[in-house]
Amino acid sequence: MNLKSIAAVDWICAFYLIGALLSFFFLHAFPGWLFLLTLVILGALSYKFRKNRQPLSAIFFTFFLFLGLFRTAESFTTKFPTGTMTLRGYVSESPVFSLKSQKFPLKTVYGTAFVMTDKYSFPFSYGDVLEVSGNFLKRKNIVEVGFPKILKLPGNQGNFLFAAAYNLRNNFTSLLTRILPSPENSLASGLLLGTGGITDKNFIENLRITGTSHIVSVSGFNVSIVIIGVLTLLSFGSTKLSLLPLLFIVFLFDLLVGFTPPVLRATFMGLMLFFAKFVGRQRNTTDALLFSAVVIIFLDPQSLGSISFQLSFLATAGIVYLYPLFYSLLNGIHDFFREPLALTLSAQVAVLPISIYNFGTLSLISPLANLLVGWTITPLMALTFLTGFFGGIFYPLGQLFGALSLVLFTYFVKIIELLAKI
Questions:
Q1: What is the pLDDT of residues 118-158, one digit of tens each?
Q2: Structure-derived torsion over alpha carbons of residues 192, 198, 203, 209, reported in degrees to the nearest 10
Q3: For residue range 91-104, what is the model confidence (pLDDT) as tens digits?
Q4: pTM for the complete prediction?
């Protein structure tokens, strides 16, 4: 692939993303303004290309801008009935628990609706067929129903592999709950598996105040850390020899956390970066990042509104572009600590603005909190995995790794508690 073809790929991806973003941000509120703005942009770009004697290029790239525009518009204008009604569907992802409630997506013939119900009402599982009666409301292109009447029907419509993955994750979470105390056990589950099931109200508030909620809330972010972390560790050897170990580790981790959309999106981005490195050109990492974003948004335009996608994309971009900077700034530290510290800090800094906006409050505490606890993420994820893995094979050995992880978890919790009081 020559430089001209690489540049063409960059332009195609950029124009598609511009169209998708224009549609996402302006379509619902100002469709007329969106159309006029698109015409202005197209006119300006066409004029620039004509000056450079590239009219065919202008038409070609314009096509991808319109493709992004209308593909995204089509996705967000899909009609889902709202109001009081009864719908049948199945639980398409394992429920996420909060202090007093549980929330899960219900896949219906009209699309997906998110159901929130009492935490102790019924132990819903992936694949359960339900009849849900309630008031379905649409907010920001997301259909939700709160505390409806739910009737569980016979049968299971879940995928066998997905069901096995969720089963494995639930067993893993149970082991962590037995080995580690609270809130460290829920923190461990959220950190490694992205379950977000922390029930300690005070600790949830402390995470919000310090701007660190994203660490235990979105599994896509965690997958990005794992994949790029594995890439970093394997980079010391041959890239070709790293391929099979990487695929094996990533598959096991995805199986453990569940093949959910956030996990698959983060996995795809991470693997694209690996194959870019496999080709051997530094510039290819940018191409891979842009291309993976376009593929994800094309297949699922609603990913644009997903906090998980935003965090995993920014974390991956941060590791790609900021890792060399932090690695050089940490000169003098042993590589055993330098690698994971640079890895985690680069991801944390990249996601900090959007994590503050979505999970916390804008204050000087958030950057400080992420700096003080961010370096613990990679070793904690490794120790948490070893705790659950060996706990299922030989329980005392799992307890040993749990005791080791508890030292870092205690540090994490105490730092968050201390900073939340400032």
A1: 876 777 888 899 999 999 998 766 789 999 999 999 988 88
A2: 70
A3: 987 777 766 778 88
A4: 0.68
